[in-house]
């Protein structure tokens, strides 16, 4: 019985010790009983004392605040070391305490106070009252900070972006706090601004597309197109950083807090008088301000520009870049072609200030005029000849030669050859000039067949014998009589019965001026002669044979 009671007592005693003895790895309360050799000696109870460096009681950049009798919380790392003392840490206790506090602030999206105390790769270290956080370089300020020295050691608010207690990671931002306060400031300034209001501002920054103007705590964008009525290539032409300017509030976006500003709106709009000053078809002098692929912009006066489209730049240079015709800053004469006040557009013409070279050519070179020029280009359908006024005339394949096919005749010409031709047509609307080389010596075909009509009997000379017929010549014009037209009698339709040099009487069956060919036939002549003989000497119905009639006609002819 006594043994059982003893065992119960020991169990209770053991349980009591376990309950009261602090667990290693936990935060315990203690009292400072002495300060010596830069250390505070702390009694954590349970007959345990430990030492903590005084610097663990100090915030970065501050002196330690600790004195004998103070109650402090410390972290019990081990109940006893080699010297029989408890191993305790104020810093680790502060860290545990800080993590609890910071986790609550993170959950509540609340700001936390801290001080930047060190520089690391990519940013800075921040003491958040016991826990160390990382401040990325991009989160220090709303604009890049070149020197963070003045910020070191200062107690200031931060926003926790993310934290991971298990890994001991905390990332904070100072920029988020600044942006929030700036947003409040912007909202206050914007609330006092109205669209159309004229305000003074200071040019803070200049970019390619405009300038940012400080209106007293809030920036507005003055776009390059709203600086002046004239074309501005770069804002630095008009503004400089630090300059005070008078601007008009054009638009305020309440959601994004963006403010659009304008300077030209405070000046008179030159477009109000454009229609009066620049009537249609009037000619004015202007300066080329910009050249693009599709034309050139010409400034008529500051703020008023017109476009000379590439199609209106030159009568003759059709597929040339505008930069080959005019150059920037060049003074040019232009004609007003169209005005669109709603779209603020003026269409101008450069070529209209010069005479149409096709009209000039038609006046100086009427049809039938002989011209001389260089072969500029050879195509599958003819030659292009350079003519006065930087224009071209075309000799079609069919106008190269009377005797040769166009495809054969064009082989005799080379680019750069100087040739003569006759003007056959000038179409000023289509900007087209037709020339003829074969017409230089007159129309041989027309001259040769001038007195010949269809049905006429003409004498030709055989020039060649072929399987399909014979080639003959009449007044220098070649023709071909097919085998079927060589005789009425099928047995005599043999080309070989003729010889080169034979003179033959043939009937003209066709005159084709287009192909410049005579249709000739011996057979047709024979049929015509028979018909005539029948009409004169009797009818075939009377019983007389054709031989009798032709014989009688021949005898009478004798």
TrEMBL record:
InterPro entries: NA-bd_OB-fold (IPR012340), Ribos_protein_bS1-like (IPR050437), Ribosomal_bS1 (IPR000110), Ribosomal_protein_S1-like (IPR035104), S1_domain (IPR003029). Residues 25-91, 109-175, 196-264, 281-351, 368-438, 455-523 form the S1 motif domain. GO terms for cellular component: ribosome. Pfam families: S1 (PF00575). The keyword RNA-binding applies. The keyword Repeat applies. Keywords: Repeat, Ribonucleoprotein, Ribosomal protein, RNA-binding. Binds mRNA; thus facilitating recognition of the initiation point. It is needed to translate mRNA with a short Shine-Dalgarno (SD) purine-rich sequence. Belongs to the bacterial ribosomal protein bS1 family. This is 30S ribosomal protein S1. It comes from Salipiger mangrovisoli.
